[in-house]
Design brief:
This protein is α+β, with helices and mostly antiparallel strands. The protein has 4 helices and 9 strands; from the N terminus they run βαββαβββαβαββ. The chain is 22% helix and 45% strand. The protein has a 7-stranded mixed beta sheet with strand order 1-4-5-6-7-9-8, with helices on one face. The chain has a two-stranded antiparallel sheet with strand order 2-3.
């Protein structure tokens, strides 16, 4: 597998990757307010049936996101684009923000996501950023598991994050 900087010619192939995932689990959010204290909890739950979760950004939203990112890498096996990562540097906050990390369904479970992630960490360190954050949908349980396997910790959430109004879970790590 070869990881390289994405080129404009790669965009069509990236759009054609199967971005959806299947999941039997999700993270449920509960918010309670009692005497001025707001408590928010997230709990993994088993869904009544397996669901197909689509990417929250599609079509033009994906293209715009890629064009405005500071890092766009693709994973290629020589014949096909197998996956990609898109990230932004927020130097004023010391953050690298991973907005998309996708491996096409046909290429998953082969270490490609890990390779893309490690290249993103190396880029963020070169940029002298202090922290890396990945956004994930609450229903993307495989994505949540991936983040945790890469050593990221839950670091917050953003309600109504995408046009779909889904909650974004934020997972992060301090960079050395």
């Amino acid at each position: 597998m070869h990881i390289r900087k994405g080129r404009p010619a790669d965009l069509k192939a990236c759009l054609q990757l199967d971005h959806s995932i299947s999941s039997e689990y999700a993270w449920r959010m509960e918010q309670q307010e009692n005497e001025g204290i707001i408590t928010v909890t997230f709990q993994p739950i088993r869904l009544p049936r397996k669901v197909e979760v689509t990417c929250p950004r599609q079509g033009e939203d994906l293209l715009n996101g890629w064009q405005n990112c500071d890092l766009f890498l693709v994973a290629s096996n020589g014949q096909h684009i197998c996956g990609y990562v898109a990230a932004r540097a927020l130097p004023g906050h010391g953050l690298a923000w991973v907005q998309d990390l996708v491996v096409g369904a046909a290429f998953r479970r082969a270490g490609i996501g890990g390779q893309l992630f490690r290249e993103t960490v190396a880029w963020a360190q070169e940029q002298k950023l202090k922290r890396l954050v990945v956004e994930v949908q609450t229903r993307n349980y495989p994505g949540i598991c991936f983040c945790r396997a890469m050593g990221l910790s839950f670091s917050g959430y953003h309600d109504c994050h995408w046009r779909s109004q889904d909650i974004a879970l934020l997972f992060g790590t301090t960079l050395r």
